[in-house]
């Protein structure tokens, strides 16, 4: 009883924060989401370019540009936390952790905390953390609503939105994220000891030919961490990508209202999303969510209780 009263009091106090609703409205503005996604792509590309052999002047300019984007990420993080009522538990949400990692390298450098860490570990760790910014793209792919806002900001009409487009974007994002993160891990593990891996783009090339099973054999990892990253990436590729492609196929079949003549395939789909985990679409005759297993009509109440 006391715990419930404290929770209710905390919720009431957080709702009184000035500008909370305005902050939430600002963050869900389509143009803001597009700018945030663009910054995530640009900053990841800048990190990759800085691994090349560049002139000191160009390197400083690229680093300055990246720092400006990192400050934008930091301000966005604070505004997003403010919109959530400054609740400490909100900091443990997956997307809040990703947002924090986006500017953590800048925070470590500004506070001087990295001075107590061995330079090699510190530099490699910062490079990997900076490459994790690509995960911010997942925010616009969470739900049909967030993706529809993103499309609207890109100039598409709401009537043009189809469920299969979200699944296609998720497939492309999963492949891009897998390539980017794996290449980052391999680069940070190999470039100091492996002359065949001098920069990020070489690591990206190696990751691409490995995951596509081409395997020319011209580049090989020599460190245990690099070999482990390759193994994990292969298992992730053969487990995540087929699942995403399966969801894409179901969405496309449901979009066309197509029903196969085979009794083993039922493709009548509905755009209804589970109100607990937001998974969609579902079969028209489905009673339970295919992702979390909750009854579709019960998920709404649970989600509302969690959000409160």
Provide a descriptive summary of the structure in words:
With 308 residues, this protein is an all-alpha fold. It folds into 3 domains: 19-154, Four Helix Bundle (Hemerythrin (Met), subunit A) (Up-down Bundle), CATH 1.20.120; 162-256, Orthogonal Bundle (Helix Hairpins); 268-308, no CATH class. 62% of the residues lie in helices and 1% in strands. The chain has 11 helices and 2 strands. Strands 1-2 form a two-stranded antiparallel ribbon. Helix 2 crosses helix 4 (56-83) and helix 8 (163-190) crosses helix 9 (200-211). It is globular and about 55 Å long. The two termini are 17 Å apart.
How many E strands? 2
Shape, per Cα inertia axes: globular
- Would you tell me the overall average pLDDT? 78
Shape-level CATH architecture of the largest domain: Up-down Bundle
The biggest sheet, with number of strands, parallel, antiparallel or mixed sense and barrel status, is: 2 strands, antiparallel
Number of domains: 3
Query: Class of the largest domain in CATH?
Result: Mainly Alpha
* Secondary-structure class: mainly alpha
SSE ordering: HHHHHHHHHHEEH
Instruction: Briefly note the CATH topology name of the largest domain.
Output: Four Helix Bundle (Hemerythrin (Met), subunit A)
Beta-strand portion reads: under 5%
Kindly state the percentage of residues in helix: 55-70%
Strand order of the largest sheet: 1-2
- Rg estimate, integer Å: 22 Å
Low confidence ranges: 1-9, 255-267, 299-308
State the distance separating the first and last CA atoms: 17 Å
Distinct helical segment count: 11
């Amino acid at each position: 009883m006391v715990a419930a009263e404290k929770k209710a009091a905390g919720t009431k106090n957080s709702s009184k924060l000035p500008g909370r609703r305005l902050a939430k409205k600002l963050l869900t503005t389509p143009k803001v989401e597009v700018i945030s996604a663009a910054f995530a792509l640009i900053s990841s590309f800048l990190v990759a370019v800085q691994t090349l052999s560049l002139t000191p002047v160009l390197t400083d300019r690229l680093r300055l540009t990246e720092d400006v984007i990192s400050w934008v990420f930091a301000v966005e993080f604070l505004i997003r936390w403010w919109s959530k009522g400054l609740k400490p538990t909100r900091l443990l949400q997956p997307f809040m952790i990703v947002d924090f990692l986006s500017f953590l390298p800048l925070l470590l450098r500004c506070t001087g905390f990295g001075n107590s860490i061995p330079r090699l570990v510190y530099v490699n760790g910062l490079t990997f953390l900076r490459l994790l910014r690509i995960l911010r793209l997942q925010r616009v792919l969470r739900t049909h609503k967030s993706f529809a806002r993103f499309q609207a900001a890109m100039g598409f009409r709401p009537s043009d939105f189809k469920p299969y487009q979200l699944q296609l974007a998720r497939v492309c994002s999963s492949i891009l994220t897998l390539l980017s993160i794996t290449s980052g891990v391999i680069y940070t593990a190999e470039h100091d000891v492996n002359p065949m891996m001098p920069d990020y783009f070489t690591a990206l090339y190696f990751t691409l030919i490995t995951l596509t099973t081409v395997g020319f054999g011209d580049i090989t990892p020599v460190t245990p961490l690099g070999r482990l990253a390759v193994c994990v990436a292969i298992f992730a590729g053969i487990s995540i990508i087929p699942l995403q492609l399966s969801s894409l196929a179901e969405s496309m079949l449901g979009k066309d209202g197509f029903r196969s003549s085979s009794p083993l395939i039922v493709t009548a789909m509905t755009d209804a999303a589970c109100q607990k985990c937001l998974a969609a679409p579902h079969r028209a005759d489905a009673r339970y969510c295919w992702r979390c297993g909750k009854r579709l009509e019960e998920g709404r109440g649970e989600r509302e209780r969690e959000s409160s």
